Amino acid sequence: MAQALVLDFGGVISKTLFETHDLTERALDLAPRTLKWLGPFAPDSDPLWTSMQRGEISERDYWLTRSREVGRMLGEDWRDMETFVKRARGANPDTVIRPEAERAIRIAADAGVRLAILSNELDLFYGADFRARLPVLARFETIVDATHTGILKPDPRAYQSVFDALSLEPQDCVFVDDQRRNIAGAVACDMRTVLFDVRTPAASYREALHHFGLQFD
């Protein structure tokens, strides 16, 4: 039986920015349906997302481009993703946490499953202040964030950092991420994996908890 649940943050624990365009538009005083890029929810309408999925640009590059675009709509020069996230989501961070994530994390923690986060850009995108305002993160034993380590998934060293922090073997860990390249990196490290589908979060968490013999109710 697996011992630790290792989650990505953006898209897995938090809703994607694609899912909260209405909140963003209200927060930034933009007209409804101003933001039309929908990433995995409508790939054909988002060539930049498709380019990222092909590996032609990084995920960081994708979001930095979107951040700059939105900043220009407001007549501002946004040079980092954190500005976008804080302006779009800073008023009430809890509203962007998936209820399915909160439920799955509670079920796992109550059953004694160890919890960790492995993110490429938690503080880079959200900022340490934003993270500190999320009570759900208090349940996690360790957070490995490439904002500080400088080692991005799917580099094997990123996954090794989690094994070292938990003093566990790869096979003891179930890794959940919404990006195929990161899942492939985890598979190469002998982790159990779940490719998270942002369109059906409950199904993905149900699959993850199944590795621990737990039910997602």
Specify the helix fraction band.
Answer: 40-55%
Sheet of most strands: 5 strands, parallel
What distance lies between the first and last C-alpha atoms, to the nearest angstrom?
A: 20 Å
The number of strands is: 5
Percentage of β-strand residues: 5-15%
Average pLDDT figure: 94
How would you characterize the overall build of this protein?
The mean pLDDT is 94. Helix 10 links the parallel strand 4 (173-177) and strand 5. The chain has a five-stranded parallel sheet with strand order 3-2-1-4-5, sandwiched between helices. It is globular, with a radius of gyration of 17 Å. It has helices spanning 21-27, 47-53, 59-73, 81-89, 99-110, 122-126, 128-132, 146-149, 156-166, 180-188, 201-210; strands at residues 4-7, 114-119, 142-145, 173-177, 192-195. Helices cover 43% and strands 11% of the residues. It is of the alpha/beta class and 217 residues long.
Provide key terms for this protein.
217 residues; alpha/beta; 5-stranded parallel sheet; 11 helices
Brief rundown of the structure:
It contains eleven helices and five strands; from the N terminus they run βαααααβααβααβαβα. α5 packs parallel to α11 (201-210). It has helices spanning 21-27, 47-53, 59-73, 81-89, 99-110, 122-126, 128-132, 146-149, 156-166, 180-188, 201-210; strands at residues 4-7, 114-119, 142-145, 173-177, 192-195.
Write the layout of secondary structure elements.
Layout: E1 4-7, H1 21-27, H2 47-53, H3 59-73, H4 81-89, H5 99-110, E2 114-119, H6 122-126, H7 128-132, E3 142-145, H8 146-149, H9 156-166, E4 173-177, H10 180-188, E5 192-195, H11 201-210
Parallel strand pairs: 1-2, 1-4, 2-3, 4-5
Helix pairs in contact: 5-11
